[in-house]
Amino acid sequence: MNVSKKSETFLESLHLYLISSGKKETETREIVEELRDHLTEAEKEGKNVDDIIGLSPKDYMEQVSREMPFDFRMLFSAFTIFVFGALSYLLLGDIISGGAQLSMIQIIGYPILMVVYLLSLATLLRYTSLHQFDKKKEYMLISVFGFLKISLFIAVISLDQAIDSPVIVFSPLGNIIAALLTIGFFIGASLWAKTWIMIITVLIMIIPEILVQSLSLSEEASLITKSVLIFAGLFLYFWLLNRKEKSKETYATPF
């Protein structure tokens, strides 16, 4: 017997809240599945999720989170993947543009950017899990944060253009090696995470770069055009995910 839609929504929110609070995936899954079993039995007796947790959903999630240890290894892994992912994307974009190079502003700025973005994203995920928005609103908020990430990138690029700093220029062989390493990183990270979202996101980021290269635009116009195309691509991707999930729910609903 499956739990009710209300209970399932609560379990999904609990899982999201704990993961975004830096808790271990295995322990989080165990807690969620144990609670699912309790809810299944309780609903057979006519009870609901409120009867089982004995608190408001917000208070219950926060209480469970306080009782679980913080997973520093997971946080470090996520930070490493995000930083290397950002640098890999930038290198791949530069290689497509004619040659990779990194300035000190970029080397320092992008890790800081990723820290800000990760903290903001974790805050967003905890907020959405506590307030239990519908999927459409969740995807819209995530799309907005995708645009925030792009805006932060543009801010670092603008700062890099405004301030002279030492630049590391890659040789032709270095470009080839960097391209192979970045592609290998994206494939490896996707296999590790068991999702193709990173590769799809990279394609959404890179394709506008290729398109803009074929147009005769000013530097400012290129940045704006790429930003609009990337935002549109991310929005379309999350919209398609939302439609796919709705289709699954429709087919799963008994007549």
Describe the overall structure:
It is a single chain. With 255 residues, the chain is mainly alpha-helical. It has 10 helices and 2 strands, in the order H-H-H-H-H-E-H-H-E-H-H-H. It has 2 domains: 5-67, no CATH class; 72-252, no CATH class. The protein has a two-stranded antiparallel ribbon with strand order 1-2. Helix 1 (5-20) packs across helix 4 and helix 5 (72-97) runs parallel beside helix 9. The longest helix has 34 residues, at 219-252. This is HAAS transmembrane region domain-containing protein.
Number of helices: 10
Give the overall average pLDDT.
Answer: 80
Order of helices and strands: HHHHHEHHEHHH
Determine Rg (CA atoms, Å).
22 Å
Low-pLDDT windows of residues: 251-255
Transmembrane segments: 74-92, 104-127, 139-159, 165-189, 196-217, 223-241
Protein name: HAAS transmembrane region domain-containing protein
Pfam family, one: HAAS_TM
Domain HAAS transmembrane region: 89-204
